[in-house]
Specification:
The radius of gyration is 24 Å and the shape is globular. The chain starts with 5 loop residues before the first strand and ends with a helix. It has a three-stranded parallel sheet, covered by helices on one side. The protein is mainly alpha-helical. The chain is built from 14 helices and three strands.
Length: 303
């Protein structure tokens, strides 16, 4: 097939254990490349899914040390290592050394929780995910958005709104970027108290076809509300783009020193311009710290 490995990516921990066993077993019968399983423990089935996949012959599974594992993260490493110890699928990993590493990251996790960077909600099991089918990264983003709006109490309302928005949008896959588009729109629908009272630019782009064709049928009333009489893109969206590299080469000619620099500028014009300017100063031996001091002095004198 031209592939070095095959990865089964289960972002929302929806792949149930028996299904994982059957899928991996059938794949192992027909392909010779390693099979890699990536799941989470959002629904609480991740440990069992990994174990059943191991019995079916999976070659790689993703885990996380227990202080930062489970919930929307990966199943805990130590639990799987202990379960397989002494069996034909023994990992050979040392539980004692894993315990030492976990001890270090336990303090890291504690600090992240204290600082508010790690919400305990994301480390808990939520079987509602089997109904809402929301990936872990998407859940973390939703919690962050609701925190900023002082509306954490709306969390379950937003989870219930996500499947409705996804259906209206034609069932786009819940993986970046469409997962974040659906999630953000669900948050707006709940916070506004009215569905599609406010519609994000990205939602309009998705409904216009800028992200490609969605697998399901779009709610035409919602599309009309979002984009009015704009024409819906039915071809490959990138085919409609005009060549722009020459324009970016000209704009970045004083900053770019390679084709990669031009590409960085094309993708992130504001951020890349600042980065390239600072990078060039260091490459040219200019002391940027002294430059900053001179700037402050000049500003003070001018005032």
């Amino acid at each position: 097939m031209g592939a070095d490995t095959i990865c089964i990516k289960d972002m929302a921990n929806l792949l149930l254990p028996v299904d994982a066993y059957n899928l991996v077993k059938k794949l192992k019968e027909v392909v010779s490349v390693p099979i890699h399983l990536h799941t989470h423990n959002t629904t609480g089935t991740g440990d069992m899914t990994n174990l059943m996949a191991a019995w079916a012959g999976v070659d790689i599974v993703d885990c996380a040390l227990s202080p930062l594992g489970n919930g929307t993260s990966q199943p805990a490493t130590e639990a799987l290592v202990a379960t397989l110890k002494g069996t034909e699928r023994d990992t050979g990993l040392d539980l004692g050394k894993l315990s030492e590493a976990a001890s270090h990251f336990r303090s890291v996790a504690g600090k992240l929780k204290e600082q508010g960077d790690l919400d305990p909600k994301v480390l808990n099991v939520d079987t509602n995910t089997l109904l809402y089918q929301v990936p872990g990264g998407m859940l973390s983003n939703l919690i962050s958005q609701l925190k900023q709006a002082n509306a954490e109490d709306k969390y379950y309302e937003v989870l219930a709104e996500i499947p409705r928005v996804r259906e209206d949008f034609g069932y786009p896959p819940l993986v970046t970027p469409t997962s974040q588009i659906v999630g953000s729109q669900a948050v707006l629908n709940v916070l506004a108290g009215e569905r599609y009272k406010m519609i994000t630019k990205e939602s309009k782009g998705l409904l216009r076809g800028e992200y490609g064709q969605v697998p399901g049928k779009v709610n035409e009333e919602v599309r009309k509300k979002a984009i009015g009489d704009d024409e819906v893109i039915t071809c490959r969206p990138a085919d409609l783009l005009e060549p722009e590299m020459d324009k970016y080469r000209e704009e970045a000619k004083d900053l770019a020193r390679s084709e990669e620099d031009v590409l960085s500028y094309a993708l992130f014009p504001q951020v890349a311009a600042k980065f390239l300017a600072e990078r060039n100063k260091k490459l040219d031996g200019v002391d940027t710290a002294e430059d900053e001091v001179r700037t402050i002095i000049v500003q003070d004198l001018s005032e």
